[in-house]
Amino acid sequence: MTLTPSLAGLEVVIARSEPAMATTVEAFEARGARVTAAVTATHTPASDGGAALVAALERPPAGWLAVASAAAVASLSGLAADLRPWRVAVIGSSTADRAAAAGLRVELVARTTTGAGLVEMLEDRTVDRLVAPVVENEPSALAGAIVGSALAERSEIIAAYRSEPKDLSRFADRIADAHLVVAFAPSGVRRLAEVGRPRHLVAIGPTTAAPAIEWLGSPRVSVAERHDLAGVLEQVERWWAVGNDLGSAS
Fold first, then answer.
1. Which SS3 state, helix, strand or coil, does residue 89 take?
2. CATH at 217
């Protein structure tokens, strides 16, 4: 007997930045969904070309690296610096997988996928030095959590990459008509709000959900219980199986 894919018939818009879009689309399509990939941003090197990050990583002693996203992992890849002595703490299993694939020594994965969650776990460790590569031209939740913590005086928050927003206006009709929009970052929610109003939105976690709830209202927003791609897929499957009362997409 042939089983029907769990997301067969679902029309979904994925709003995510470039580094992780391909694997996300592949995962949804493998479950039968019809996907529109709305890339919210691409990432480019920091304005100094990574010089400040290299200098920090080469200056002894090595300590902990706090890595929040796939873009932060990409900013570390290929640097002219030896990362082997650095212990790495990451937000989320997807980021952990990417960091490990890039050769980083991942020792800590935040239980809650927020900057505050990662900092809270690091505060329970012996941390003599912490380096956090973050986005240069947008607010960083990880940076904010570090600044407000006991780790602040031992930390170096360094602009490692820039986020270059993409125009989503060509996706306006799909955002409005699809059964569902899935968002992976607060910045993606803000880009969506500029061009269309979805029927329902699934957010990867509470940080992403907050601006979506403010914009759409809580009945139209669902939050993944596990804050990674697998958790998002589980939430979408539940919604599609039992919670979808919006009818068919146009």
1. strand
2. 3.40.50.10090
